[in-house]
Model the fold of this input.
Amino acid sequence: MTDLARRYIAFEGIEGAGKSTVARHVADHLRATGHEVVLVREPGGTEVGESIRQILLGDGEAPSPLAEAALFAASRAHLVHTIVRPALTAGSWVISDRTAYSSLAYQAIGRGLDLDAIRTLNDIAIGGLWPGTVVLLTVATDEGLARQAVDDRIGGEAVAFHRAVAAGFDSLAAAEPERFVVVDASKAIEDVAAAVIDRLGL
Ligand code: TYD
Done:
């Protein structure tokens, strides 16, 4: 793993797994132990990203599956170029609420686009800067959907879609055991955060 990727941690999982809250806890923990931390979310996190997020998740016309994948990749390209890479280069840690792995799970496995093509598209978008560690928070699909606060266009897809995405994340984790840390997120959020900090050795 490169030094940049070592300080780049992704949080992934289906809706309602508690990614944002756990990511915040881990960022707070790193700051409390004297580290610089930049916390980002995808899609969004920049003006360009928030505009793309509005196209992707707003109430307007739904983009086609490939357009959807390309828009997520565009938002990601901009975020990595303007925030993630500079922060890592300056010595910060970067904690990301979702990354390209969400596109592999949602756009490739969920929507049925070609996995290798979506991987290549994203590899180009991020200039090869994949997170060194991916924390996959797992929760039963029904429970996650019931916990979900905001029901956007993708969050509002049928349960079968979310089950496919969950299975997709599991298979991505199984394929890269050295990169993925899989944590049961069905417990209280503080316990989940403590388990993540422990498993990451932070
Ligand atoms: P997010 O803001 O993380 O919402 P949530 O808190 O519900 O997880 O993500 C918004 C939606 O976008 C979510 O349904 C997952 C989806 N998504 C993709 O389909 N592909 C992607 O590459 C990303 C980053 C998100």
